């Protein structure tokens, strides 16, 4: 108030606060081809748009649109819960459908809010016009491959500067947290609950730090270490993924009659090593796609974060196809075909653009490309299958704008429930223990002996699910912390 008075006395224009945010709710289905909207409508959800500032430093300046869905409570209402599926840049509009089921008795007690974060999905989009998924990408088997992929990621940054440059300064997690608080105001809540997976745990941590006292119940599943979150986040996960690959090889060896990949874990691993060698020398032809040592490690990495039998069977089918491709062209199955379409065509350009822009907008990374090459070389022996991927240079090293704000320092007394698997290959268990130190009033539930990223409502572990649901119903953090 005193500052505004001084400005008025000096004759400077006094900024007016933005109007209270409003959401106009309506049906979700956009057209006959909109299956997501149809499913939301059938479940009784409603959709809406919220105008928020592009730049919160200019709250009355240009506005962008945030797309939302709401599945209203049908039981005795506890409050509103905002959901985030990770990414970064993952769309969330249909999350209420999945979480209402996962939450069981608690699911009908909340208005569940699905949200496409800024620049994602139905929200005001950005699109760098990428010819392929832009990140992560493997540096390959030798220096020439590294240089080729280095040029690719530099081109990704250049495309984003050319096609989305006006938005890039405003793509970051702190602004998404501000958007969430505008949602809170728009739905008329003093406090909101929050459930986030993977990157969503970082977003949730930033929200409770920036807006203390505005959360009720908070669940953070598959947590990130807020100090390590950046485009270099994967640098530390190579050993966990090597271990997950070896564990899968043991599983496949026990089923050699089905998958024909080798009757011992060593023979299965030899099959994997064979198609990696051929990819690095001649390449692999799978359907209409040409795979090389830049893309194959990502194919190997992507589906590895799930140790359930069905997921391992799918993974075995992918490995079998890649092994067959060492002898000549093959056709992909539906899972591999869909993965390759997203990886090697423009189909995922918008999704990949948002993901890259968010992570590059949050924290700067080193720009010395030779340091990345040396890091890969140092770790090839210990991480033979994934070092070239997890330690490779990213578009952030060439990003055309610097982060507009420093990273958020997480040191919050807000209570929360952290859920982690001790064998998670994507966000390793050390990240969970680090996050708990930043949130000292949080309680952590650890699922022992699982190599799965994302547990609650996904893994089928009754112990974890019951603890989360009890917390959501009672606001009492669990006393026992292992499952």
UniProtKB/TrEMBL annotation:
Keyword Magnesium: no
Keywords (A to Z) from UniProt: Hydrolase, Signal
GO molecular function, a single term: hydrolase activity
SUPFAM superfamilies in the cross-refs: alpha/beta-Hydrolases
Chain ranges of the AB hydrolase-1 domain: 80-260
InterPro entries membership: AB_hydrolase_1, AB_hydrolase_fold, Pept_S33_TAP-like_C, Serine_prot/Carboxylest_S33
Superkingdom of the organism of origin: Bacteria
Residues annotated as domain Peptidase S33 tripeptidyl aminopeptidase-like C-terminal: 392-481
KW DNA-binding (keyword) present: no
Family, as annotated: Belongs to the peptidase S33 family.
Identification of the protein by name: Alpha/beta hydrolase
Native source organism of the sequence: Kribbella sindirgiensis
